Amino acid sequence: YLDTRKPKNFPPGPRWYPLIGCAWELYKLRKSTGSLSKTTGALAAKYGPVTGVRIGTDRIVFAYGFKAIHEFTTKDEFNGRPHGIFYRTRTWGKRRGVLLTDSEFWQDQRKFVLRQLREFGFGKKTMSNMIEEEGSVLIENIKKKIDNTGGACVIRMDDIFGIHVLNTLWTMMTGNKCSSDDKEIRRLQVILTDLLSKVHMDGALFSHYPILRHLCPDYSGYNMYLGIHKRMWRFFALEIQKIKETYNPYDLRGFMDVYLKMLNSPKKKESFTEGQLLAICMDLFIAGSETTTKTLGFGFLYLLLYPEVQRKAQEEIDRVIGRDRLPTLNDRPNLQYVECVVLESLRMFGAKAFIIPHRAAKDAYLNGYLIPKDTILLGSLQSALYDKEAGWENPEVFDPERYIKDGNIHVPDHFIPFGFGKHRCMGETLARANVFLIVACLLQNFTFTALPNEPPSPDFVDGVTPGPKPFRALVTLR
Ligand code: HEM
């Protein structure tokens, strides 16, 4: 894999220098643009919708725009996941979990996880109850703050959703509910935030130059990466142990119990192991927590920037539900405008993020270029979710009404914040339900206003899961 010659008919891109490949040019672009997604945009402007680069030992292709992303996420040849040192280190040197695995192993595990999640978390009643409870705790917490400060309070909005989103995942996985100040759940949140803000979709220095993890483990990012993962392994190993101690096959409380039952079944396939259970727990928390939390963060940021959208959503909630009871998932069909606020929030979060890296499982073609086996493929979702050619008009405007056609919600094919194809997100139902109920509950009870001297910025903090910059709002009781 040290062969650094450019393959014939590989996508165009910056010049490949011996050893470093295009690292220097990419570093400069990243510094000047400030984020990976803007870097991808700059590359596309120069080289076209499919750009090929080399960084150290990695060959990477950036797909830009809905057409190119749609092509690579739907072709089976590109359904592999990268398997370099960066990806293996997270699961103790082996390929485990569902987020970064492929082939038959991934198919079996994905099928099992999806089926079980539907039963324990995605089933409408349990899911609605779980999120409603979190919504009412959030409302009570804000009301207490308002009571203490006399009618209105100032809240850091990017910071208030994390624990509640984690708690819904926690309940689904373990069957237990935690209070929002539970020490364990707070500890998990700190680990996840740490990991997802320090790691980037295109890897780290040690992933492009694996030798550096031995030569300079601190500088190459290896020690930090391994350290955070070790904390996560310890955390989940302990939780699985606790679940095992109270396990009763006749009373399955959540996903972990169901997986343990499978482990005791004579029918289980080889890929089902306790290590795999730990990896799935990590994956679902990594994939499900910060994505949902940051979607809510961006949603409220845009509700501050677009007060008329907030007012319209509140009017709809008042008309359909009133103030005597909290919204539930059953209200979704009748809260059309709120549902469209959710779609726009997802689009705005997605537009800062990337598809999880894919890998060419064999030599294949993308947009007419040869993509050799084991090339990593990255897709900037902004390029698809802001793509005017695909059909987005005024993409930078937060406009829930763009989804309403002839009085009905119409979600266009180019709405792909959850990806596309066989690796499409496994938590879409839960994520959309979470965002919907929390937005509806909060707007029913409060009005959120930008502080006069602190207009929130739609700019973002880069990372695997990009988030809004810290911002505060004035919250008043309705
Ligand atoms: C707003 C919230 C979310 C967004 C925007 C989101 C987005 C995505 C995207 C873009 C992908 C990559 C698809 C691909 O690689 O082609 C993905 C995959 C995945 N997501 Fe989500 N996600 C969200 C919430 C969740 C939740 C709540 C869970 C779990 C409970 C979850 C679990 C997963 C898993 C396991 C995968 C990997 C699927 C596979 O490779 O087969 N996600 N998600």
Distinct ligands, ions and cofactors found in the model: protoporphyrin IX containing FE
Mean pLDDT across all amino acids: 92
Major sheet summary line: 4 strands, mixed
Structural class: alpha+beta
> What is the number of helices?
17
Which oligomeric state applies?
A: single chain
Radius of gyration: 23 Å
Task: Specify the overall morphology.
Answer: globular
- The fraction of residues assigned to DSSP E strands is 5-15%
Low-confidence regions: none
The run of helices and strands is HHEEHHHHEHHHHHHHHHEEEEHEEHEEEE
Number of strands: 13
Terminal CA distance reads 62 Å
GO molecular function: heme binding; iron ion binding; oxidoreductase activity, acting on paired donors, with incorporation or reduction of molecular oxygen, reduced flavin or flavoprotein as one donor, and incorporation of one atom of oxygen; steroid hydroxylase activity
Protein name: Cytochrome P450 303a1
Family: Belongs to the cytochrome P450 family.
Binding site for heme: 425
